[in-house]
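Supplementary notes for students who missed Thursday's class. We covered one full example, reproduced here. Read the sequence, then the structure, then the short commentary at the end.
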Amino acid sequence: MKKLIRNGLVVDGSGNPGYQADVLLNGGMIERIAEKIDAPADAEVIDAAGLVVAPGFIDTHSHSDLRILVEPEVMPKVMQGITTEILGQDGISMAPLPKQYISPWRKNLAGLDGDSDEIDWNYETTENYLKMIDAVKPGLNECYLVPHGNIRMEAMGLENRLPNDEELEKMRAITRREMEAGAIGLSTGLIYMPCAYSESKEIIEMCKVVAEFDGSFVIHQRSEADTILDSMEEVIKIGRESGVKIHYSHFKVCGKKNWDKVDKVVELLEKAKKEGIRVSFDQYPYVAGSTMLGVILPPWVHDGGTDNVLKRLADPKLREKMIYDIEHGIPGWDNFVEFAGLDQIFVTSVKTEKNKDAVGLSLTELGKLRGKDPYNAIFDLLYDEENAVGMVDFYGTEEHVIRIMKRPEMNACTDGLLGGKPHPRVYGAFPRILGKYVREEKALTLEEAVYKMTKKPATTFNMTGRGEVKEGYCADLCIFNPDTVIDKGTFIDPIQYPEGIEYVIVGGELAVEKGTYTGKRNGVVLRKKGTEVIR
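Structure (token representation):
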């Protein structure tokens, strides 16, 4: 059925000034844009007077990997105007997954993406995983990055060592297989196991394969704190020696003592650009981050996977060593307790009812509740929950958020974990930019912000026919009220849909109508074909 969107201000994603126009949709495509279009007899008419007609937002860092299979509508995303998201982040995701590693990998993944007995975990490859997403009829369009940790696991297990030549060649072959299956690039998370066991050479070899497909290398870099400059140099080296496009995940500088590094961080971005290295990054618009609580443990605790983590947590002497290392630091390790503090790290999700009372508490408050020192309270919690605990940590400044947001390399993302009491970015990252940083703070113009949510990520990841309101492009649209759009969630009460997102159209179908979810799921899996990302 055709749809005619009338009287709206078209902010088309290009960055150019908005203009008044009607937009005619025919099925899943934008058929015509003109100052005035007579309504076809069979067209559904949407009056967008006073509203902005924009491309659907693209979330380049999403953790819906498991949720999409059990709750395919992914309402926290669609209700904020997101029509496409990129899964497979941080080097740890669903596929590939050899059958012999299903049990330990589910435990490793649980703190980031959750766990479920509702799905069949015997899919093994990215191709089969993407077919599972197709089968559930997703509410959004979904793309996938093949994760470094999954590749490493298939090639050489979960041990803390470097690959031999045969294993490295196997990692290259797995990367190629998964890129040919439609992955749009490679991800890694160099603070997460087993990715953290690797050195640059291993990553460069995989990235050479990704570069053949003009794919992207998306990286949670080794440090966002004390050694961020060395970490950025490593990432730039990977881009230089492999030829791959670099995309930094959730770009930021963590910890008060590191805030003075921001000028040098910007200098390194400029240096890479002058060298001809293609660099981009995404950012969520908050001064707090979110990940799994297990990252506060020293790296050696994670050797060999989650089962070994639990054994070490059960050993009182090793707990003493953990406390010592957290309080004194380890060179090259991003110590979350050091740069955020026990009172600024909060539990957001747990797996069992036993520890539901911990959700929402700081680690300091957790210790008081349990009647013991915070460290042992944390260790008990991680042990009881088999490491499946989420957290929020406060690390930055508003000044830096705005400075990074204004950079030409930036596009928006959520990076939200979907379980428990999540970070409010899960429900409101994109409306927050439009409300707080465009309307209230005027850090960006409306056109700049929409560009960073739409065409910029579409161009970065080669999404053909998406990211703009343009004739012949896909009919993925977000129609919002620029005077009222804002995020509503807080860190105390994060599960709140935003205001001002009036209509969301995915593939020509209304997923949100007058601010209400319609129940229609019309997303597709987007796969890489050659150098393009298409249906």
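Commentary. The mean pLDDT is 96. Residues 57-287+396-417 form a domain with the TIM Barrel fold (CATH 3.20.20.140). If anything here is unclear, bring it to office hours.
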